[in-house]
Write a structure and sequence with these properties.
- By secondary structure, the chain is an alpha+beta fold.
- It has 2 domains: about 70 residues, no CATH class; about 30 residues, no CATH class.
- The strands form 2 sheets. A 3-stranded mixed sheet has the order 1-2-3, covered by helices on one side.
- Helix 1 crosses helix 2.
- The relative contact order is 0.17.
- It comes from [Mycobacterium] wendilense.
């Protein structure tokens, strides 16, 4: 059985309660925020959701961001990180730059580390 997910970008009753907060954080006028919200109808999420739910969908374990007329794959990546059989908090703190570096990072199949 395939398991996929949709990360919707849609203006709904649920997201409406956060619209004013988003506008304030982004320093947007209510008019501009209203225009953005108008461009996010839920029916523009439906095609991607329907595709993922269809029996012919070849995807499994994927997340598609959908809305505003666009669809994109969202993916988790794992950095090269560090490995030490006797790992300490000092190791993590001292090598944080290496842990966070995404150069050479790879997509995960199930968000599992590649250590």
């Amino acid at each position: 059985m395939a398991v996929n997910a949709v990360a919707p970008r849609a203006f709904t009753r649920m997201s409406a309660s956060h619209s004013d907060k988003v506008a304030a954080v982004l320093s947007l006028s209510s008019e501009v925020m209203d225009q953005i919200n108008a461009g996010m109808p839920p029916d523009l999420v439906a095609p991607a959701a329907a595709f993922l739910a269809h029996e012919s969908c070849p995807l499994t374990g994927e997340v598609l961001q959908a809305g505003m007329g666009g669809v994109a794959r969202m993916a988790m990546v794992v950095s090269q990180g560090i490995s030490n059989p006797s790992l300490t908090i000092e190791d993590v703190a001292g090598q944080l730059d290496r842990i966070m570096d995404l150069d050479g990072a790879g997509l995960t199949g199930a968000a599992a580390p590649r250590l």
